[in-house]
Amino acid sequence: MTWEEIAKNKKQEVFGKIPSKWIIEVPSIESFPNANDYIESILTEKELEITNGTISSTLDKLSTGEMKALDVIEAFCHRVAILHQLCNCLSEIFFDEAFERAKELDDYFEENKKLRGKLHGIPISLKDQFNLPGIDSCLGFVANVGKPKTQEEMSLLAQDLYSEGCIFFVKTAVPTSLMSGDCYSNLHGSTLNAVNRYLSCGGSSGGEATVVAGKGSLIGFGTDIGGSIRNPSSFTGIYGLKPSSDRLSYTGLTNTLMDHPVISSSVGPMCKSVEDLEYVTKILIDHQPWENDAKVPPIPWKEVKLKDKLKIAVFIDKPNLKCQPSIRRSILELIEKLKDHEVEIIDDKFPVDYDKISQVSGKLYGVNGYNDIKAKLEESGEKVEFLEYMSLFSSLSLDDEWELNKLKREFQLKFYEFFKHYDCLVTPTFCETSYESGTYRFASSNSAFVNVLDFTAMTLPLGHAKETDVWPKDYVPEGEANEELFKRFNISRLKGAPVSVQVVGKRYDEERVIEIIKLLDKLNK
Question: Residue 213 belongs to a domain with what CATH number?
Fold first, then answer.
């Protein structure tokens, strides 16, 4: 069988898991650019009540018997099934197993009159690379189709969530190899943004962001090695946490660039509510994953109280690249709302040479010549155009790798000096609000420096692009990158698209960054 046939069959297999009663005639993007507008026009009142809830409101109703776990999961399965048809966001569907799990939880509640854990009946979606027994973890590779994971390979994080009573029901689409700021693979095609289907949802946790933004699950989990949680979260207007490496366990995930020695991928939650994000993150840390994963540092959950007056550094424009108008306007509006705090724009005083740290990150990602990705593509013979650049890379020597690690350490030390004077750094994750699928440009990203530093970062939704967002009349873009960014800004297409920033803190600073997000979120509303 050719790789094209395998890919086609896999896509049909996933679609075939949707019950026939939930199949829709997909409306055009022109008629319903926002997937939620269409979905909420056809769901029942009960389904809307359930899928518009939060973890706390859902648990309250489950704990009183007002709702059953089966009611909850059926509503979310229906919603995510429609969302997949609109946005192409799922890599795996296993509704039947989810219904069985819900029935078991309902039986437990009926017999014991209490919930079975802190996540009893809560639907949780997972990025494709989280291993679940009996289910593929393809990472968009044709070569990985039909190789389901075993019980022994199940993600440790998924085991801890499951022990608290949650329900898994879908895994979400990713770009081939995960190494893209868009979300396309030969297995699933392009995944669209739930909030604006004209646009990309970003990558590589793009399918996860679309599912959460489309209210197809209450909470999801992604991974981030260069912005893969934060960029999709920004593009879809949700909260996404990139912890420092291994604060949450990575054991039991299928990955590319696995065990990268200098720049590490991190697991983190993605959701519509910062309170829900905090709740589930604390649950996972309270499970003491360091007892089962040697790479997880033994750092218990820390209770944090912020200072009355924060000093916040704001970095808007990268050297030689100006942010698009919607992002600049939203950041300046946020600054206005921070009048009781001290804010300083540091565009000309970034703690390290930005171009240099960008060059280092580019070398770090290709430290092994992307040989694992090249081998996986050769295994099936599939062609992936956006990965062709990897042919230009070859493995670095050990001496070169050590030199990069030395530079990383120097960058970290300079930033620690910086954080003696500032409580956090606020910066866009991307110089663009979003872009059309297939037009991703790495130059627009503003996320990878956080990964090089191994710092904590989390997205903060600020609002939406407005029709009045325009370039200044006297603005003349300088350089090729600015010229392209200037031309790509189409406000008629971007109007209503989410606008977000990221808040960056030091290593293993997750609790404090979450507290800062809660404060800024309150002030911004």
Answer: 3.90.1300.10
